């Protein structure tokens, strides 16, 4: 039987936040799915860490699963807390900053033709 999600137990109740841990000075990620159409990754950031400004070909849905993070999209700042989500549109510059240690799930949906 094919499994389309990896690095995660199937048919088991779990907390996504438990899949990744970051020590001081780290950003840790675990990819759950990656193909031409979608990417699903969970991240853990230690306080003060960041992912610098970049762009994506797809729309990115981020959900904070623990803590608080700052997201800058096309120059506008958003503060997200546990349980909150934000869509970062395709081809708009964005960055991620850890105000405190936090964890997030990132789902990127890519266009059918790239």
UniProtKB/TrEMBL annotation:
UniProt xrefs under SUPFAM superfamilies: RmlC-like cupins
InterPro entries: Cupin_2, RmlC-like_jellyroll, RmlC_Cupin_sf
Pfam families per the UniProt record, alphabetical: Cupin_2
Residues annotated as domain Cupin type-2: 43-110
Origin superkingdom: Bacteria
Protein name: Cupin domain protein
Organism: Lachnoanaerobaculum saburreum F0468
Species lineage: Bacteria, Bacillati, Bacillota, Clostridia, Lachnospirales
